[in-house]
Amino acid sequence: MVEEVRRRPAGLALMPLLVLACFLLAAGIPCRAQADDARYSLGAVQPVMELEVVEEVAGSTWLGFYNIDGTVPTTMALSIVSFPEGWQVTLSTDALSSGTDHATLMVEPSSPAQQPQNCGEPAAKSVWLSGRGYVCADTAWLHILVPAGGGGPTQATVAVRAVATWAAQGSFQQERDFVYAVRVAESPTGRRDWLPPALAAAAAALLGVLRRRHIAKSIIVD
Fold first, then answer.
1. I want to staple 102 with a disulfide (CB 3.0 to 4.6 A). Which of 49, 79, 93, 166 is the partner?
2. What is the pTM (predicted TM-score) of this model?
């Protein structure tokens, strides 16, 4: 799926350092829990909070999850919980798949580095965290397709719920909603619908002027 989203980074400098917002699923910082020798930790990256999509053009953005302070894997269950009726909103674990209404990631423990990392998987990104370094983040992709001419909203909210669980902790879990403010731009094709009638009208007007000039010249008597 080709990414066709104009992104507004909400005050985050995406380049050149790719400084990304770091969120705890519940409180805004990486979450940590400890039991015996196991440490449970998870951080999340939401690079944009405002999106602009074009009618009939599939737009995409991604969420990243990293585990640099924990010692055990984290299971991430993602689902679409809010979007306007008529829109097609899906999740996938890569940028090209059309996806479904849910996705699951297994976030393994990793370590930060001072240089960009080779994360070794197509669905992982090396991202910069201020004060920590580069980390490998497992990614899930959000895809939005808005039909043209449906009379739907031009601005709306889309929400993705992420639930983190740890196998050794039974029912213990953390969850958070990632919310996007989405603005819909008119399809370029739709904006050009007026062009053929306008050109036809202009041609007819020009033809009328030329005919009148021809008639005027034909009745001149020397």
1. 79
2. 0.71
